[in-house]
Amino acid sequence: QSALTQPASVSGSPGQSITISCTGTSSDVGTYNFVSWYQQYPGKAPKLMIYEVTKRPSGVSDRFSASKSGNTASLTISGLQTDDEGDYYCSSFAGSNTIFGPGTKVTVL
Amino acid sequence: QLQLQESGPGLVKPSETLSLSCAVSGGSISSCSYCWGWMRQSPGLGLEWIGSICCGGSTYYNPSLTSRVTVSADMSKNQFSLKMTSVTAADSAVFYCTRNPPAVYYFDYWGQGTLVAVSS
């Protein structure tokens, strides 16, 4: 299975909202409700931010929300804060594998 | 608080076998509530799921790696391991051990990661 597609970078000013897209195919994102999103700071392990398309783990701010339409999933960060800067990866189950996007670098201007 | 800690050689020679262990504290790997597995990350391949071991010793592997990897568990030591055979430079990466609930494909706990370089 091919990797998912994400924009290389997204930026926004503090307080704004940004959305990161994650495009897959009918073999992964389009079929399974097992899309997840991870935040990663440099030199650190990824942290689960969203699972099963829209669910937030305990402790994750409600400024993070997500959705899916067809073969594309989206992560929205509202009320952007400086500590939201980092890399964000989407992931999807793909039948016999769990695949990831290449990551999106979020910059807070 | 659950913690996962990877350990193993930071340098492996080409064609040899990479072996890593993950010690789990704050939880038991012998419960059937979770699966335990491995992920790797490199500039060339990005994040890649390697495989997991679940209740009763059931294992699941990335189809592209299944011929070269084995994930096993040692309940007595509360740790699990990864073996990857016939490594090449392309296998150089940061390796993470992970936890995921069974039959759902997200990873809610990660170790800090360990860098493994494949070089002669």
Q: What kind of oligomer do you see?
A: heterodimer
**Percent of residues of chain B in beta strands?**
over 45%
End-to-end C-alpha gap of chain A = 35 Å
User: Low-confidence segments of chain B, ≥5 residues, pLDDT <50?
Assistant: none
* Structural class computed from helices and strand pairing of chain A: mainly beta
What is the CA-based Rg of chain A, rounded? 13 Å
Radius of gyration of chain B: 13 Å
Helix count of chain B?
Answer: 0
Summed over residues and divided by their number, the pLDDT of chain B gives a mean of: 95
Morphology of chain A: globular
DSSP strand count of chain A = 9
Shape type of chain B: globular
N- to C-terminal distance of chain B: 39 Å
Q: Which consecutive residue ranges of chain A, at least 5 long each, have pLDDT under 50? A: none
Can you describe what's shown?
The complex is a heterodimer of chains A (109) and B (120). Chain A is mostly beta strands and 109 residues long. The mean pLDDT of chain A is 96. Chain A has strands spanning 9-12, 18-23, 35-40, 47-50, 64-69, 72-77, 86-93, 98-100, 104-108. In chain A, a hairpin with a 2-residue loop joins strand 5 and strand 6 (72-77). Chain A is built from no helices and nine strands. Chain B is built from no helices and eleven strands. Chain B has strands at 3-7, 11-12, 18-25, 35-42, 46-53, 59-61, 69-74, 79-84, 93-100, 109-110, 114-118. In chain B, strands 2, 4, 5, 6, 9, 10 and 11 form a seven-stranded mixed sheet that branches. In chain B, strands 1-3-8-7 form a four-stranded antiparallel sheet, with no helix packed on it. Chain B has 120 residues and is mainly β. Classes of the chains: A mainly beta (109), B mainly beta (120).
